[in-house]
Write a structure and sequence with these properties.
CATH topology of the largest domain: L,D-transpeptidase catalytic domain-like
Length: 543
């Protein structure tokens, strides 16, 4: 009874605190019945466990060169890896049932006169199952990504989100970690290794600390508060911004002073608002988003980082849809940044990774079938001169030119298979502008100039049909070609003046990552929250 109580207290103290767990050595070695079952292809012992396939694989490998158990030594004692495994699961409430099972089975082991019991197997299999789940969560993420993707596919007319993560041999990874007694450090290496993930993880800790302190109070709506005026809500706003935006509380009076103006502008900048210092309903609405929701948003975005490649290249192009920006990143810092226009909500830009290949001066625009059905057909029916005015040529399937007046367009509708091809010729009216950037992909998406420059003045820039429009494309082209003497500003201008369609390859074919990140830490160290333009945050929370 004393031995039983001592063991219970020891295990309990470790599982729910920070104690260390040891057992006495036995003199004889053991051999697990798990191995016997594996040899006989009897897998019933794994039937109720979520990681059944991996468990079979990992124990089959382990049984070829050891006594079979992962968390016990050959004498039936808990090993050093067992302590690390408990460290991994002890603060996670979803593993409480495993913790209780370990305690109960450990008591059975101590009470038994035998060196080896089925309780050894029970502990080993359950703990392995839990650790495999954690490895999967750390590397691939906890979200049921493919279920979420299927749901969005069914719900949206057009939706694409590619999962670009490299595959991990989880069984081999765990066995190697255990062999080297480096479970915890090995699992840390499975987390994304690039700077944005680490910055965001730091911010999560900060916001969790704010939550422990009680978060912030809601601020009442009312008339817009202007700089140097007084308002009864100012004291609450000061307290709110002292938590997240560097405002230092010297007093809690109701004067809108200079120090508060700096903090308000910083807050507005971080939340995609015009940083004018005026505290109106839009600013108050953002201030009133609860600490719990902020933490959820950060966690969602940390999860999205786990869906990306494990290690980023030294230099790459990063496109973030919610921030409407393109960045060229080198050595973890943005060396070039520009505004972009992305797909509208009903025609969202796809999320994927590819590699920049070439650029085209004076591009043709081959109008996608979907746009012919939904847009061009309607314009032709309304105005037969639309085609000529926009410098579009129509051909049949054999490539023969067709006049717009030769076809009865009223025979077709937005669901018809229209047997004609539409191509807009190069020029100022071309929808792609004067240059496009190619990175071959199955979505036929590319970066390009635009003849609708006014859209870049807007804060919300989700207006395209999926492709990505660049604010100053020739500045981007210059940046991409700065180490390539073949392309100077002068000869690029000459090619534009020629009005001829010309295709050129890039010397440095950078990787392009089109992401969807609504929480992002900039090089300035500030945490930015962007509008969930496609409602993907809301959807992801369901899975």
């Amino acid at each position: 009874m004393i031995k039983k109580l001592s063991l219970f207290l020891l295990l309990s103290s470790f599982l729910f605190a920070d104690a260390k767990l040891f057992f006495k050595d036995n003199r004889k070695s053991i051999h697990s019945s798990i191995c016997t079952n594996i040899i006989l292809n009897n897998y019933k012992i794994f039937d109720k466990l979520s990681q059944k396939k991996l468990l079979i694989k990992i124990y089959r490998k382990n049984c070829t060169h050891s006594h079979g158990l992962l968390w016990f030594d050959k004498y039936g004692n808990f090993n050093a890896n067992f302590v690390d495994a408990l460290e991994l699961i002890k603060n996670n409430p979803k593993y409480n049932y495993i913790k209780k099972s370990i305690i109960n089975n450990s008591i059975d082991i101590v009470n038994s006169d035998k060196l080896y019991t089925k309780s050894h197997d029970n502990i080993d299999i359950q703990l392995t199952n839990a650790v495999l789940k954690e490895i999967n969560n750390i590397y691939y993420g906890k979200t049921k990504f493919y279920r979420m993707k299927r749901w969005l596919k069914n719900d949206r007319e057009k939706f694409e989100w590619d999962y670009s993560k490299e595959k991990l041999n989880i069984a081999n990874y765990l066995l190697n970690a255990l062999k080297n007694n480096k479970l915890i450090s090995s699992l840390k290496n499975l987390e994304p290794q690039y700077i944005q993930y680490k910055r965001l993880k730091k911010q999560l800790k900060l916001y969790q600390q704010i939550k422990k302190l009680g978060g912030w109070q809601k601020i009442k709506y009312g008339k817009t508060i202007k700089y140097k005026t007084k308002d009864y809500r100012i004291s609450k706003i000061k307290k709110r911004l002292s938590l997240t935006d560097g405002f230092v509380m010297t007093n809690d009076d109701n004067l809108y002073n200079k120090a508060l103006l700096v903090a308000v502008k910083r807050f507005q900048k971080r939340h995609g608002l015009e940083p004018d210092g005026r505290i109106g309903s839009s600013t108050i609405s953002k201030m009133n988003i609860s600490i719990n929701k902020k933490i959820d948003i950060i966690k969602l975005n940390l999860e999205r980082h786990r869906w990306l490649t494990h290690i980023f290249p030294k230099k790459y192009i990063e496109i973030n849809i919610p921030s409407f920006r393109l960045n060229i990143v080198e050595n973890h810092k943005s060396i070039y940044s520009t505004k972009i226009v992305v797909g509208k909500k009903e025609r969202p830009s796809p999320i994927f990774t590819d590699r920049l290949s070439s650029f085209v001066i004076n591009p043709y625009w081959r109008v996608p079938k979907s746009l012919v059905q939904k847009d061009i057909l309607r314009h032709i029916m309304d105005d037969s001169t639309y085609i000529a005015r926009n410098n579009i040529k129509i051909t049949n399937k054999r490539g023969k030119r067709v006049s717009v007046t030769d076809v009865n367009w009223f025979e077709y509708d937005k669901d018809s298979n229209i047997p004609y091809r539409f191509r807009q010729e190069p020029g100022k009216k071309n929808a792609l502008g004067l240059v496009k950037f190619l990175f071959p992909n199955r979505y036929a998406v590319y970066l390009h100039d635009t003849n609708h420059k006014s859209l870049f003045k807007k804060t919300n820039r989700a207006y395209s049909s999926g492709c990505i429009r660049v604010h100053k494309p020739f500045d981007l082209l210059t940046e991409l070609n700065k180490d390539d003497s073949r392309y100077t500003n002068k000869n690029i201008k000459n090619h534009i003046k020629s009005k001829k369609n010309r295709h050129f390859s890039f010397k440095d074919k950078l990787k392009i990552y089109i992401n969807y990140l609504t929480a992002y830490v900039g090089d300035d160290g500030l945490l930015y929250f962007y509008k969930d333009v496609y409602d993907y945050d809301r959807v992801q929370l369901r899975f």
